[in-house]
């Protein structure tokens, strides 16, 4: 690693960003902390309750269930999207007119507003007017995402695959594009099998981007709100009520500020822990690969 | 491996099918949507689109979204540039902690911030303004912009800076005349990502607006819950929200592959 020049004046360059983010992050966070240790009888009169809300939360079956649902959802979509994304990236054309065609079409779902993604799948899956729902019904398959929890889960998972697999594909594709042709030629001379090329050339080169993909997908799926909210509204029953949906229900629906604030903090701490692991792993990988690092960036 | 091309083709077909269905529905009348099941419109009509382009409560949503997204992109890129330079070139007290703290905000669930943001912006009189949404979106876009730009800037050799200073450039002149042209594609990619995340976000944008700055996506949800049955107009509004994204992708298509690796391949 090239030693960076020590320069305390650099703080002045960072200061504007620091102030804006602090304004947007610290003040609201303090509000949440404030609510999490107080209770009210209305009329803006608050009194100190200490850690009661947290104790309630830790013993609340509702929170446990939402949390397990959330873990299950994130696990399922990671297990499907990552291998699928790698497979598609490997089969994408490397040059010619197919490249921009693939890239533009694949990036499209990423730029659709999240509630429109929900609307698209809500319409697509309906038995009366949707292509998917109607086709399945024509084959005699009983599919109704508004009543059957399993159908609702399948819809939400497929929707997420539709929405986000492209991110994994594009990241892996960028990693694959950075492999010089000479590597493949050398492999051909050595008579390497297709699997050996993947295992010893392509996978190591995708290592870094794959890590970004896994962690971005984990965190974003952990915060998912809009898409399942539009499609299922958290139902049927509570079967697709993930953490964010539960939190908004609690805070804005029931205006249960103390509980919501305690839940917010615990939720935020979970994500903070994950991002700390993310950051540590990332910077370790960065240091390992830095001696051979080619000029990153375009 | 002759059939290798089939995989991306099937995948793209899977991606485009639901979008096709949306566009298909937006070109039908409500009677047709509910009565006949057909793969393409039997009676082609543009009435749904006409409703959106003539009714102010609809088209102002697109204008509002565009305004706050633009403000957000400008703020994010402008402020992130010097900060990213500082992170990529200098070491200073607390730099690693600061960088990590910035990133944690990218990971913060918007659901946690919805209610406090509402109270904060109401108390300073910014509720229902474009600037409020733009500032709120800075919470995740500004750290992201710093992160992406830092990746691109670290790819520029330090010798460029040193040569310029030896040649007698002042820092601001060097930054604008030499450094920024060198990372132009990085800035483009950053702007693309800021546009993307501000354009697709709904929860904060909806919480912080009521009338004057209401984004198109929030107007759509209101229509669903109120009348619930005007499928044609809903589909047309949805189809129109895909358009700006498609245009932006078309402009950055040559940088998209590298851009998604955030300058870190």
What's the short version?
The complex is a heterodimer of chains A (298) and B (265). With 298 residues, chain A is mostly helical.
How much is the radius of gyration of chain A in Å?
A: 24 Å
- Share of β-strand residues of chain A: under 5%
Q: How many helix segments of chain A?
A: 12
Q: What is the residue-averaged pLDDT of chain A? A: 82
Task: State the fourth-level CATH superfamily of the largest domain in chain B.
Answer: MetI-like
Question: CATH topology of the largest domain in chain B, what is it called?
Answer: MetI-like fold
Tell me how many strands of chain A there are. Answer: 3
Shape of chain B: globular
Main sheet: strands, sense, barrel of chain B: none
Determine the oligomeric state from the structure.
Answer: heterodimer
Report low-confidence residues of chain B grouped into runs of 5 or more.
Answer: none
Low-pLDDT stretches of chain A? 290-298
Spatial strand order of the main sheet of chain A: 2-3
Radius of gyration of chain B, in angstroms, nearest whole number: 22 Å
In CATH terms, the superfamily of the largest domain in chain A is MetI-like
- Please give the count of helices of chain B: 14
Biggest protein-protein contact in the assembly: A-B, 101 and 109 residues
CA-CA gap between termini of chain B: 27 Å
Q: Give the structural class of chain A.
A: mainly alpha
Q: Give the % helix of chain B.
A: over 70%
- Our count of domains of chain A comes out at 2
Structure description:
By secondary structure, chain A is mainly α. Chain A folds into 2 domains: 8-50, no CATH class; 63-292, Orthogonal Bundle (MetI-like fold). Chain A is built from 12 helices and 3 strands, in the order E-H-E-E-H-H-H-H-H-H-H-H-H-H-H. A two-stranded antiparallel sheet of chain A has the order 2-3. The longest helix of chain A is centred in the C-terminal third of the chain and has 33 residues, at 257-289. Chain B is an all-alpha fold and 265 residues long. The longest helix of chain B is centred in the first third of the chain and has 34 residues, at 56-89. Chain B is globular. Chain B starts with 5 loop residues before the first helix and ends in a 5-residue tail after the last helix. Strand 1 (5-6) of chain A pairs parallel with strand 1 (90-91) of chain B.
